[in-house]
Specification:
The protein is mainly alpha-helical. 71% of the residues lie in helices and 0% in strands. The longest helix is centred in the middle third of the chain and has 45 residues, at 62-106.
Amino acid sequence: QKHVIPGYLIFTVLMCFTVAWVMRRDLGMPLRQIADFVRNLKPEQLNQPLEIRRPDRVRADEIDMVMQGFQHLQHALDRHIKDLDGLVKERTSELSSLVDEVKRLSQLDVLTGVYNRRAMELRLPMDIERSARYGRPFSVIFVDIDHFKNFNDQHGHLIGDAVLRDFA
């Protein structure tokens, strides 16, 4: 027993060191490389592939599955970002069109389609300056239809609106 137990003890210690070394090489180092990669990953580098230095293996293990899952996540995020970019572009275009329409509507009378007071306040100074610059005459015409309220009361607002549109 004096010779067998120390032999088994030495054998057990050597086996523990061997298992620890193999686990460190096959699990610890790859997991540390994955952790370093993720820790240093920046949004503009999402497409950068996860590469781990490992010896070639015959079959895939859990580390390979983690890498494949991370690659799948990267591709999904990239697709999602591209979809969001397209959606933002589309919404920005729609918003720009709506802003243009609101600007246009804010300067036009809804019923007649002619420029309103707001448009006159914006355009009149520019038109006067342009007239002076080119030495051309400039006119502003204001029109009032006398007794139009009586006409509306007699014929109704639908007919009155039609008359205003035709007159404009």
